[in-house]
Write a structure and sequence with these properties.
Structural class: alpha/beta
Number of helices: 16
Strand order of the largest sheet: 6-7-8-3-9-10
Distance between the termini: 49 Å
Helix content: 25-40%
Radius of gyration: 23 Å
Largest sheet: 6 strands, mixed
Amino acid sequence: MALLEIQNLSINFGAFQAVKDACLSVDKGQFVALLGPSGCGKTSLALSILQLQRGVDIWGKIIYKGANLLTLPQSILNTVRGADIAMIFQEPMTSLNPVQRVGKQIMESLMLHAEKPTKKRVLELMSMVDLPKRLIDSYPHQLSGGQRQRIMIAMALAGNPKVLIADEPTTALDMVTQQQILDLLKNLQRQLGLAILFITHDVEIVQNLADKFYVMENGQIISEQVPVIPRLSSPIPLEPCAKRVLEVKHLTIKYGQLTVVKDFELSLHEGETVGLVGQSGCGKSSVGFAVTRLIDASGQVWLDGVDFFKLKGSALKKNRSKIQMVFQDPFGSLNARMTIKDIISEGLKIHHQKNIDQRVLQMIQQVQLSEDILNRYPHELSGGQRVRVALARALVMNPKVLVLDEITTALDIQTQRVVVELLKNVQRTTKIAYLFISHDRRILQSIAHRTIEMLSIVA
């Protein structure tokens, strides 16, 4: 008998059926991969195992150690959560408490499951996930993406679970850190005899790790075979002698006394895409924030022939529209209380533009979204839809330069392909220049005309 078995599971959000008749099983010590595109129901299925969603209708069976979790009283289900089955969530930054030190957060998990929670045990858990002891008093924002993910794993291990559900735990990490997290999970699986249900849209990272595969599409498990990875097309041709629209010289960025970027240089021409690649924490995003003047930095940035760093007041406001940024986490950067229409039109209103409704509608069509989403809110959209809304918000200002910060990391391969082709089409018609920040070299090969590799200067 399987350790965890899902039988004919269906999940409804009101009239919408997110999962239909799903069946899968996880045996003791087994690494099982659940694959599928964004919005196909993978996370809904995972959350239903521990009944972590509200306002949903669930039927079918979730059998753990012979008992149906869907019929257990809440008091007994609470003893299963964390102690028998634990979960690592997709976004550690939103899952961790930003005002509590990470050591205290691991201790909270221990207090729920251990008879005698101690600081020594917290340090043991940190050691298990390869984190140095000195980080015990750090806050989440002081850690890298990989370190935050390790904290989440340590918290999940606090109850000595038999099953670990990992929901896209490597999505926002660079290739090196991704591999470190995967190696860590595989080692923990061997050492602790863990069964792991690993949810991902990235076939490549699990095809040599998983013992068994399930592929979801439109809420249904359609296959137990590894899907074929589609190839991306090449960058669009770059016109010779194109006008230079961005030039960066001697850019230096400091956070307090810590220098994170030193003497960085970059040039960008009309219709050109420059890829900025490097490991997590090397300063890639900081460069994006600095050239758009979202953080303070020294050096020179020339934007469309103007010394951008010297601009103030109305001149700065006028020129800001020429350079826009799409952030790594679209869900965090979109105002949860605003409709999609208000989000896209906000910049146009600030700059007192005309024909706002018409331009918003045109932009929605350009990013291949339907008009009916304009009255919806960010939480009602899939990851791919949110990325395209963030793109629409930036592109509606008709910028000369667009800074794209890891915008494809949280997307499945099919949606990545759609977004990349969308960006190429926009570039083909508008000659916009892209600074494409990414750790995914496969994506960069398909869109970037040249690539700059950044190395961390912080020990």
